[in-house]
Amino acid sequence: MEISARLSRRRFLGFCFVDGSGLSYFALVPRTIYLDYNATTPLDPAVGEAMQPFLHEIWGNPSSVHHLGRKARAALDEARARAAHFLGAKPSELIFTSGGTEANNLAILGTARALKAKGKHLITSAIEHHAVLHCFDYLEKNEGFSVTRLPVNPEGRVAVEDLVKALQADTIIVSVMAANNEIGTLQPVAEIGSLCRSRGVIFHTDAVQWFGKEPFTDLNQFNADLVSLCGHKFHGPKGAGLLFIRSPLHPDPILFGGAQENERRSGTENLPAIVGLVESITRFLKIPVFDKSRLLPLKDQLENLIHSIPGCEMVSSKVHGLSNTVAFVVTGTDGMALMAGLDLEGICASSGSACSAGSLEPSHVITALGKRDAANALVRFSLGRETSGDEINQVIKILPEVIRRAQLNGKTASGW
Ligand SMILES: Cc1ncc(COP(=O)(O)O)c(C=O)c1O
Questions:
Q1: Mean pLDDT computed over 202-221
Q2: Among 44, 74, 132, 191, which residue's CB has the most CB atoms within a 10 Å radius?
Q3: Substitution candidate for ligand 1 out of 208, 270, 325, 364 with most atoms within 8 A of CB
């Protein structure tokens, strides 16, 4: 079937199809409005361009001793040096990983195992990403560590006084994220970091959602020993991340094999992805690619609407929140119905995390805010570089009806 024409509408895209027998069809498809930038961002064309030579010409293995390998090695070293210079670290303090999940796993599992002779108490917060929380769960269940999970206030912030109370003589790691992925809350990481430093405790921050959204000068601003980031959250490639490890800390490896990355992370380096990651780091962090001055008015518009819809309650913080994240819960329905309703209108949003069965798990973040009953009915809009005022106006027009329909279905299904 051949597409012979494409018509643009405000809310729909029109397609004309001609099949093999010459019959033509017309279809209206909802226009895609992508509001899921905290899940991932599209690859920036210039970043894609920078990766090209490493997909086609310089494809050698950086560990090979022949000239193709040496060329790849030189490019890898140069990428690391560029990233280090830009981030304010030594090249030897950066480990390239397959993304944020691996960076967090290496930081937590590797450091806990390396320092277990010093102590076996670990601290994190209740609203971390699963790539952090599940590492702590694992260490507690299988390796004899004890874990304190700090509570958060109704806007999702950790209180430094709670951390002071939780620190013990045998605490070896504190891990608190810089910005939350579901509700966008910013944590007082610099303060937490300096407290940890004064107590001789290693501090890790998962800054995967923070980079590209908040002003960055250099890695010292976190006062952290370990910082995780990944490229696909700021228009870099997927499958590429980085862990900053302040020297002389030396986490145990979690991947064993060829002893790459200075014996700290085995596996042939993904050079195209690393080059793309470094390109996106140098382009999109110092002047954050998520432009607050453009995004905040759009966020305000959405928030004003949400406040006016019956049964909706904002859960993203107005004061300590990312400028791109609008999160709210809805009574009388659930995340799956809301996501399906939005998707039918072409709107991509998010709700908690998908489980392997293709349904949605209740959000542990909303539960930690003290709203357990609403943990199944979270909606997250995360705006980004390509989000336009016109798109937000469309969402504002459609959203009350999508919510009303989902609530109506919820009522019918549960008799509520
Ligand atoms: C806060 C946070 N940490 C870690 C991750 C995992 O990153 P990746 O998808 O690169 O493994 C994500 C991804 O959504 C995230 O939001």
A1: 98
A2: 132
A3: 208
